[in-house]
Amino acid sequence: ATTPNDDSLAPQHLLPAAADDSMMGRRRRQQQQLAVSSSASTRQWIRSSRQNITRKMFSRFSRDTVYEENTGGSITDVKFGTHAHTKDKIIYGVTDTKEFHCAVYDTGTKERKVLQGHTDAVEEVHITARNYITGSHDTNINVYDLNSDLQWQFKEHTDKVLSMSMHFSKPLFASAAYQSDKLWLCNYHYRVSTSLSLPLAKPTVAAGAMRFGNERYSETLVVGTQDEAKKGNIAICCIDRAEARLIDSVPTDLPVQCVTCPPACSPLSGKFVFTCSEEKLYFYDTLYQSSSKKITTVAVSSQNIIRLPNKSVVGHNIHDTSFSPNGILLQSCGEDNTVVVHDVRRFDRPLFVLEHEYMSGVHGVACQWSSDSRFLVSGADDCTIR
Q1: pLDDT tens across 115-129, in order?
Q2: Which end of the chain is more exposed for a tag (fewer CB within 10 A), N or C?
Q3: What is the arrangement of strands in the sheet containing 376-380, beginning at the earlier edge strand?
C-alpha cells in the first residue's frame, strides 16, 4: 500500500518540480555537452583550414596574369602606387637597354609613360602621394610630378645610387650610393638634406637594404650593409629632425641583401625582416628583452617549393622581400627568379609560387604588393613584368 506522499505511481506530469528539473537538467547537460563539442570542433576546423582557405584563394589569383610586358631589358625594381589616386600605377626601372631607364604603366588606361632624365640604369623606384622618385647609376635621384615631368634632381651622391627608402608619412627619403660611408636624408619638398656617416670601411648598401619603419616605428631607419671583407651589418638608427642616431648594430656573417618592415596590423609588427642571400629569413625584434632573442630565423627551403626543372641548380637564395598591406602575407624573391608567397603565421609550407624564366642574371626578380593585397607585380632578368 502506498501513502499519499508516495509519488512513485503518480503520472509524470504531476511529478514534483524538483524531479522534473532533475530529468530536464540531464537533457540540458547532454545538449550543452553536444554544443560545446560542436563548438570546439568548429573552432578546430577553422584553425586547421585557415591556411587552406588562404591557399585556395590566392592560388586562384596566382593563375591569372592580368598584365604582362616585355621591356627589352632586365627589371631592377618595380612598385605599385599605394594611395587612392595612384593605386593603378606601376613604376619600374630597367637596365641593359638604351631605349629608356624607367617608366610608369597605368593599369586603368593601359598606357605607359617613360620618365626622362636619367642617363644610366635606374636601381630604385618609388611612388608617393605627389611624386615619382627614382635613383640611378648616373648618381642622381630624380623627383617627378604625377604627370611624369621632371621637377628636381638630388645630386649629392658621387657614385651610383643603389638603395633608397621613403618615410611613412613625411616627404623624406634616405639614400645610399656604392661604397660610400655616407647616407643622405633629404626632404624633397623643401629640398634640404643632411648626411650621416656609417662606421664601416667602404660599405655598400644593396638595393632594398634600407627601410624606414611602419607608422609605429616611422622614426626608425634600418640599414643593412656589406664591407670589403664581404661581411654584413644591420644598423638600427633613430631619425630626429633630419639627424640620425645609432641605436644598435649587429654584425652578420654574410652581406645583407634586403630589409623590410611589416605593417602595424601584422602579427609580426615590431620586427624588422632582413635577408643575407640564403634560404633563410632573419627577424630583428625591436622589443626584445634580456630573456628573449634579439634575432631569430626561419628557413625557407627550396626543397618545399615546386619550381621549373632548370632551377634545380640554384636555391631560393632570398634577395628581396615585402609584406602585404594586410600584414598576413610575405613574398620572398629568390636568386632563382622565383617569387614565393608565405602566410606569416606558418612559414613551413608556401602558399603559392610565381615564376620567371631563370636567366642566371645578377638582378634576379623584384616584386611588390598592391595597396589592397590582391595583386603582386614582379619583374625579372627575363625582361618581363607581370
Answers
A1: 999 999 999 999 999
A2: N
A3: 69-70, 384-385, 376-380, 365-369
